[in-house]
Amino acid sequence: MGNPVFHTDSITKIYDTGEVKVFALRGVDLDIYAGEMTVLLGPSGSGKSTLLNILGGLDSATEGAAYFKDMNLTAMTERQLTAYRRDHVGFVFQFYNLVPSLTARENVALVTEVSSNPMRPEEALAMVGLEERINHFPAELSGGEQQRVAIARAIAKRPEVLLCDEPTGALDSKTGVRVLESLAQINNELGTSTVVITHNAAIQNMAHRVIFFADGQISEVKVNESRLLPHQIEW
Q1: β-strand 37-41 against 89-92: which pairing, if any?
Q2: Domain residue limits at 199
Q3: CA dihedral 143, 148, 153, 158 (to 10 degrees)
Q4: Contact (Cβ atoms closer than 8 angstroms) between residue 156 and residue 112
Q5: Cβ count near 213 (within 10 Å)
Q6: pLDDT tens digits for range 9-58
Q7: What pTM was estimated for this model as a whole?
Q8: Nearest residue to 187 (alpha-carbon basis) of 38, 81, 12
Q9: How many domains does the chain fold into?
């Protein structure tokens, strides 16, 4: 599989409410490899989003360690984590988080203006099939188009990893397929390591590997010998 881009060593995350301790993750050991598309699959509350947030530098582990290449994320300061997110990670969430008063191009430019080696906003939007919509505002775009703007914004800084939390969760199946096509294209053409969280079991068929979560632990790992294209997935 090559070299891991992410490695976790007994990651545990505990939320202490004062009256009870909630274990979101229970000693997770995981490698995610450079250039692969990985799907994290499991029900709500199984720990998928918590793990993604730790890998993305948005949250910290209670115990254990998480590494991006040779960087120990769990030992970083907030300032170091900010630089890590800026320089290495693209995020795509279920809700698009676009600025309503900015056009598609201007939303993407928010990232390119602070990146060291960005694409042009027009190039990033063309990669997701929105070259004709660059001057439209979010309110003038469909939900799927807004999500593709969010993907363009995430990839415009040329991140090494793309972390996607339920990227099709707010979309119908036809629109979701178009979004998944964009993610697959980015993984194939740019070699971006891509991690997709979903509770939709059908999406696992387009991944190189599927990591199944239950009760804060990895319950199974499956390698797809033959992957499906997004339009071949039966929702």
Answers
A1: unpaired
A2: 4-232
A3: 160
A4: yes
A5: 23
A6: 999 999 988 888 999 999 999 999 999 999 999 998 899 999 999 999 99
A7: 0.92
A8: 38
A9: 1
